[in-house]
Amino acid sequence: WKSVEQMDLRGKRVLTRVDLNVPVENGQVTDTTRIDRIVPTIRAILAGGGKPILLAHFGRPKGKVDPSQSLRLVGPALKEALGQPVFFAPDCVGPQAEAAVAALQDGEVLLLENTRFHPEEEKNDPAFAAAMARLGDVYCNDAFSAAHRAHASTEGLARLLPSCAGLLMAEELSALDRALGNPQRPVVAIVGGSKVSTKLDLLNNLVTKVDHLVIGGAMANTFLHAQGYPVGHSLHEPDLAETARAILTAAERAGCEIVLPRDVVVAKELAPGATESFVSPHECPDDMMILDVGPQTVSYVDTVLRGARTLIWNGPVGAFETPPFDAGTHAIARKAADLTQAGGLVSVAGGGDTVAALNDTGVAGHFTYVSSAGGAFLEWMEGKVLPGVAALG
Ligand code: 3PG
């Protein structure tokens, strides 16, 4: 693929797919991270003499017009981030969109309405993609975080117009390649989250790619259970015991060390401030549940990280949204951030919960790279081809 900076954009209408799927409460954007991160691409298009025409989805309106999921709500935050007016068209195809595009002057930015107000978007309908393509001369995709969707605005359009990757898309792809595609070894992956069943493809891919795989969160309980440890009433998936054992065997064959909790934090309930105890994995009482990794595990992960050159992280290692069960995730995040700052580690993190946990710890800025993607980051880590990236050629 070509980067937007390699394209001749002078006088061209640049249909730019961005991800404006941002949290909004009471009509206000509450986290502008995704907006801030597309600003460089919009500025690069303007600097190259092109006219940015922004396409995006917002929420999941399922093909129906829904004013509560209108991109009109996001316009003011985008204007603020860009420091210039952003014109808005109440549709992304048809006469209103065409008129707004025709009226756009050099130096101006236009935002089109939510692509998902049309059912044809998610069906990747060729006629719908062609209707959008009429609005531009060049297609720029800057929405890595939506690239796992084969939709008209993420995939179809790339086949109809000369295409390029925006700066954020290019940055995401190069950071992820550095972490997993072509990394400096040893590589450590930390995978947390609640269910093994939702991360099977991820675990199976990682054991063939990384040198150490740290498994935390409730999904570690399934592995402990599979190895015959008591897990009390911890969240776990007993049906997946066999699968978990197969992953352990595959890892052994591939020379990947699986790091499971060496000590765990248990409590009677998952509630803020609940009384916690630290026990070894074979000591979880029947009436308690495992909610975090303990200090011995943190210290072992620290040792592993000290010997590593690359870290890729998806998923908190404990019930981080309910203190005190955030301690393990915070401690590991701090250690990874310190090693990164000291210059020894390339650290890449992604996924909504993971980024929230890093922000909470105050160390997101100390990681080498924090992805703006949730589902797309996971699918990329699973080794899947992302249709939006593949279509860029
Ligand atoms: C995201 O928020 O991860 C992306 O915008 C994709 O959204 P979706 O899961 O609704 O396709």
From TrEMBL:
Q: What is its main location?
A: cytoplasm
Which pathway does the record list?
A: Carbohydrate degradation; glycolysis; pyruvate from D-glyceraldehyde 3-phosphate: step 2/5
Which keywords does this chain's UniProt record carry? Answer: ATP-binding, Cytoplasm, Glycolysis, Kinase, Nucleotide-binding, Transferase
Q: Which CDD domains does the record cross-reference, listed alphabetically?
A: Phosphoglycerate_kinase (cd00318)
Name the Enzyme Commission number(s) assigned to this protein: 2.7.2.3
Provide the binding site for (2R)-3-phosphoglycerate: R34, R116, R149
Localization recorded for this chain is:
Cytoplasm
- The UniProt annotation places ATP binding at K199, E321, G351, G352, D353, T354
- Show the catalytic activity: (2R)-3-phosphoglycerate + ATP = (2R)-3-phospho-glyceroyl phosphate + ADP
How this chain assembles, per its entry, is: Monomer.
List the HAMAP family.
Phosphoglyc_kinase
Please give the family membership noted in the entry.
Belongs to the phosphoglycerate kinase family.
Q: Which PANTHER family does the record associate with it?
A: PHOSPHOGLYCERATE KINASE, PHOSPHOGLYCERATE KINASE 1, CHLOROPLASTIC-RELATED
Q: What is this protein called?
A: Phosphoglycerate kinase
